[in-house]
Amino acid sequence: MKINEHDIRRLMKLILANGQITEIRALKARSNNEPHYMKKTKAGYFNDPDKLIEALNGIADASAVYFTPNPVNPQLLGRANNKLDDLSSTTSDKDIIKRNFFSLMLILFVLLEHHLMTSNTSMPWMLPIKSKNI
Fold this sequence. Notes:
This protein is of the alpha+beta class. The protein has one domain. It is built from three helices and four strands. The protein has helices spanning 5-15, 49-57, 102-118; strands spanning 22-31, 40-46, 59-61, 64-67. Strands 1, 2, 3 and 4 form a four-stranded antiparallel beta sheet that branches. The model is unreliable at 121-134 (pLDDT under 50).
């Protein structure tokens, strides 16, 4: 899987506090050393951006990759410390220490739902925002 290391580092710096632990989850994923039919969910907990990039570079392909923007319980590092693995248990609501982004995500969802229900035009407000110094 080709990743843009620069953009991932920018996103992590923008959204995560320094040293914050986040879960990375890759759905229907396989590592570079696994056969194409071995796709499964891979997850891990990261507080080191370099290890996060290294782990993502180890994914050959995935249907989706996402992270938790809200801080998670530091004890979760014990499940997969700065690496992706086949985990039987991943982050649940009780593992979230503080909710920083729920309101923003809910607002965006409501706006998107409203737009889809009332219009059949494109969504220019969903275009990527370019900014200096991020």
